[in-house]
Structures are given as structure tokens and as C-alpha cells.
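Dig into what follows:

_____
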Amino acid sequence: MTSTDFSKQGNIKDFCGVTRFYLCLAVLIMLSFAQALLAQEITTGIAPAADASYRLGPGDKLQIDVFNQADLSGEYTLDGNGRFDMHLIGQVDANNLTPDELENLLISKLKPDYLRNPRVSVQVENYRPFYIIGEVNNPNSYNYVDGMTYLTAVAIAGGYTYRAKKNYAYVVRGDDPEKKEIKLDISAKVQPGDIIRIAERLF
């Protein structure tokens, strides 16, 4: 084999090495981008279209649009009693209503005294937060993300402590008037307003 052949082989190896390097770099960039999108979804808590059966409660942020009425349209956050104030009609009790039921309530309050044929749209802009306490590294309130599980909630709260029971969570539903604590599998779905407690194992 001549020196020219060795030179060609060296060039081919160099080319393959450079190609692999750029392929790995492209994969890393795509993974970083995907992680950034997931982190943004978790931290912002921006809600998709709310389920028709979803019941509103304290802390929910709503986007209410009244057609051709800019002074009535805007963002409204439900207070600790699930209420908010709207121009013209005053205080509105939205607690435990679905978005559709709130639309009908607003229409009934606006018609006929203020508007002849009001057209109202209600969307959940941000769900009320969930709360997690007990054996997690960062107990606190966090933005709810649609479809999340209790294991996801633990991850958002910094993961388990070494003392944690990891197979289930104790939960008080935010809309439960009796505030009864129930035991749920860690893979069950979180609901907005949940108070989650991760218990300590005995040994």
C-alpha cells in the first residue's frame, strides 16, 4: 500500500469522525429544545381548552369575551370564594360552575337590562394550582398541567425525600366541602386545587 492510499484512508476516517460529531451535536440540540418546551409547559401552567365538565373554583384565571364590549371583556381571576367582579353587573359567583354554565349566567345578568342579545365566551386561561406537602424536597403550590399524574407532581416538587412512601399519595380534593383525605395510586391523575400529601415510611 502506497503513502497515497494511507493518506486517502486518513481523510476518510477524518470525514467520518466529523460527520459523527455533527450528527451527535444535532441530536443534542434537538433534545435540549424538547426539554425546554416541556419545562415551559410545566412552569407556565397554560391550560388547553377546558373539559366541558370542569368545575371552576378559587384561583382559576378566566378569559371572558363579550362580543363588541371591550370594557367587559378581559381576564378575570376567581377569588378565595370563587367569585369575581365585572363592570355593570357587579359580583359574579362562578364557584363550582362549568364554563358553559358561567356563560349562561353572564348572559342572564346582561340581558335585557344592559345588552339586547349578549354573546359571551368563557375560557379557562390558567387552572388553579395544586399543593404538595410531606416527603418531597420542595413542598409548595405549583401550576397545574392538564393530564399530569401525582408522580409528575412529585417530580415538579423536586422529587421524593429518602423517607417517602412512593406507591401512593394522600389527597384532599380542592372542591370537596368536607376536605376528606383519600388514598390514591401515584399514577392517578391530579385535579386542579388538589392538596397532595406524600407520607413518610415507617422503616
